[in-house]
Amino acid sequence: MNNSRKRVLSGIQPTHDSFHLGNHLGAVKNWVAMQDENDSFYCVVDLHSLTVETDPKVLRNRSMVSVAQLLALGLDPAKCTLFLQSQVPAHNQLAWIMECMTGFGEAGRMTQFKDKSSKNGADRTVVGLFTYPMLMAADILLYQADFVPVGEDQRQHIELTRDLGQRFNSKYGQTFQIPAPYIMKAGAKINDLQEPTSKMSKSSPSQTGVINILDTPEVNAKKIKSAVTDTGREVIFDEVSKPGVSNLLTIHSTISGQSIPELEEYFSGKGYGDLKSSVAEVVVDFLNPVRVRVNELLAEPAYLHSVLKLGAEKAEVVANQTLKQTYEALGLVPRD
Ligand code: AQP
Description:
The protein is mainly α. The chain is 52% helix and 7% strand. It is built from twelve helices and five strands. The protein has helices at 21-34, 56-72, 90-99, 104-108, 111-120, 127-141, 155-172, 217-225, 243-256, 260-266, 272-298, 301-330; strands spanning 7-12, 39-44, 80-84, 147-149, 180-182. Helix 1 links the parallel strand 1 and strand 2. Helix 6 packs across helix 7. The radius of gyration is 21 Å and the shape is globular. The chain binds adenosine-5'-tetraphosphate.
């Protein structure tokens, strides 16, 4: 292996029957772009998804659908290591160490925890949601990752991971690489089509503003054509006064590769209806072959399992090495 290659780690939760366009444009698109030049580890973080109670059959199915989507979106097991988090036990083992390094107040300040727990109320919020960022820190630090490609919403969790890694290194000696977030400007936050000031989210109470990768072209085109737009008529990128139009332009630009100024020029003199039709066309053309490929892959479960087995074996070599160093640094007595 070329030693100048950087180590990359990222993960995605199998919390829904389909990923949405925000997951792809904010995260997975960068994973695909980074697999050629870097030593990349990508995992479906099924343990994280246990913070939401799910029927076991549904969870198993969603994990496999997630893997199929990642492959269909362009991850290549010959170029990256693709695995399921639960198949590499070192994640849970390092998570406990991270929990013992994190202050209670520090964990309570995580905005994702505050948002989700305030929506559900204390009695329906599990402790796992509180410790979620420490498991995420373990996911990242185990692989000595240089970069973590994520959407903007995950920036705070990466900051915590950096703090925990630095804290450990300064107390117990150099053990962890300190990772940097890798957040592309374009696509870092795709917003809900009906509420264009909130992020598109799998757990959004209404799915009418969420473009699911596995929905039919008709459903997705209809959602885009019903997107909320703004006052005025001009197609101009301005996130403050035109959040709906700006979100549609971002979606178009990140998929078509045309820059925002090019698109503004193209749509000058045209209306919001033209913009929506064009976005619908670009999105549907992009998603159609992905959906077909996902269905082909799901018809080959043995292949999907073989990809995951190989991925877990490769991941475990790196993860176990880091865990061993961590235990030694802490003074835990080795068995052999
Ligand atoms: N709207 C978004 N725009 C850009 N990036 C996004 N991501 C999520 N939503 C957007 C990025 O997708 C990656 C995987 O996300 P995840 O499923 O692990 O977690 P999430 O952020 O919790 O995704 P959701 O859709 O919001 O799920 P729920 O509703 O279950 O919490 C991450 O890199 C994330 O930044």
